UniProtKB/TrEMBL annotation:
It holds the Pfam family DUF1907. InterPro entries: C11orf54_DUF1907 (IPR015021). The keyword Metal-binding applies. It comes from Acrodontium crateriforme. This is DUF1907 domain-containing protein. GO terms for cellular component: nucleus. One of its GO terms (molecular function) is hydrolase activity, acting on ester bonds. Monomer. It is found in: Nucleus. The keyword Metal-binding applies.
Length: 323
């Protein structure tokens, strides 16, 4: 594991009630049926969410670890991290806690590059770990047709970049957002929520959000990183080259999405403003990095529907910020 330089930044978000009012107005402009409110968090361990933690409350924090420049222009293979060591760097209690989020899978464990959806909780000094983390990868062994594989990954390691929402995993008040039938241009649910908070709050204070949303019906577009390019094909000479290297997939609901996003943030921290990784709610080979919904299928019959449970972070940790 590398040495992780960490900086800590206190946040003072608005109340959940204030944020619910902002988001309620926004989602009703983008969806036919929509609402945002504050409720007591349901037990997210239950289907269809299948999280390793009951709630999203208690010492809420986020971490931005590494970054995209650890992937391109050239992958930095020394950038290997431990989710447990990240939790310690986030000053999380060893007695009880949880992490969810999005990042790159541990290539040194999985055996190839992949997308990671961290989903774990712990008790008793990090000894009793419930790890439901999923990895989405391209099956390079069976064929060359870019078949997606999504499965649970028992390791607590990761690599390159990671965005995490941490909490004690307690039940408490959260934002509940429902949205069905998109009528606006906000195709990405998480980016749409981020944009709404940016418009209303960015000049007053930073709002950082983490949590889970379910794609209940419809289809969405995802990417899954294939294995790393051969040395002769490196370095990536542009972001367009990276996009051409990625594999893109359409997956059907139900899909669970773990998300972290910021309304704004100081430039010197080089934050990733939104990051969402997903896995199938029914154990199918569907998951990866969420891009946006495909609200209408070729027959014009598909309709997207979301259900989200989110909370604000009170502390931000920047870990191993790229130069």
């Amino acid at each position: 594991m590398i040495s992780m330089q960490t900086t800590q930044h206190k946040l003072s978000p608005p109340s959940l009630e204030e944020l619910a009012a902002t988001l309620d107005l926004a989602v009703k402009k983008n969806y036919i049926h929509a609402s945002a409110s504050v409720i007591k968090c349901p037990d997210l361990r239950q289907e269809p969410f299948c999280l390793a933690t009951q709630g999203l409350s208690g010492d809420e924090c986020v971490a931005d670890i590494g970054g995209q420049t650890h992937l391109y222009p050239r992958p930095l293979f020394d950038k290997k991290y431990s989710l447990i060591e990240c939790a310690k760097a986030m000053n999380m209690s060893p007695d009880q806690g949880s992490l969810i989020g999005a990042g790159a899978g541990p290539f040194h464990v999985v055996g190839q590059n992949s997308e990671l959806a961290p989903n774990l909780s712990w008790k008793d000094g990090f000894e009793n770990i419930n790890n439901l983390t999923c990895v989405a990868k391209i099956d390079i062994a069976s064929s060359s047709d870019g078949k997606a594989v999504c499965e649970q990954c028992s390791t607590t390691e990761c690599a390159l970049m990671m965005n995490l929402f941490g909490s004690s995993g307690l039940t408490g008040p959260v934002l509940k957002i429902t949205a069905r039938g998109r009528i606006g241009d906000g195709k990405s649910f998480s980016e749409f929520l981020r944009d709404a908070l940016h418009s209303e709050w960015s000049q007053r204070r930073q709002v950082t959000i983490g949590g889970v949303f379910l794609i209940k019906t419809g289809k969405a577009l995802f990417h899954i990183m294939p294995d790393f390019p051969a040395e002769k094909d490196l370095p990536f000479n542009s972001r367009q080259a990276v996009d051409s290297w990625l594999t893109f997939h359409r997956f059907e609901a139900p899909i669970v999405c773990l998300t972290v996003f910021h309304s704004s943030g100081p430039e010197n921290l080089a934050l990733r403003m939104e990051h969402t990784h997903c896995f199938s709610a029914e154990g199918e080979n569907a998951g990866g990095h969420y891009h946006y919904d495909l609200s209408v299928d070729e027959e014009g019959a598909e309709e997207i529907e979301y259900e989200a449970y989110l909370n604000t972070a009170k502390t931000l940790y920047r870990i191993d910020r790229p130069e």
